[in-house]
Amino acid sequence: MSRTLRLLTPLALFFAAALVAAPLAWGQQTLFSENFSDESVSDVQGTDNSGNSVSWTSQKINATGSDNVFSVQDQQAVTGEGNGFEARDLDDGGSNFSDDCSSSANYGCGRWETNAIPLNSPVDLSVQALTNGDNTNFESNDYFRVFYSTDGGNNFTRVAAIAGDEFENNPDQTVSESNIGASGDDFVLRVHMTTNGGESITLDNVNVTGAGACSLRRSRASP
Question: Residues 14-24: pLDDT tens digits?
Answer without folding.
Answer: 444 444 433 43
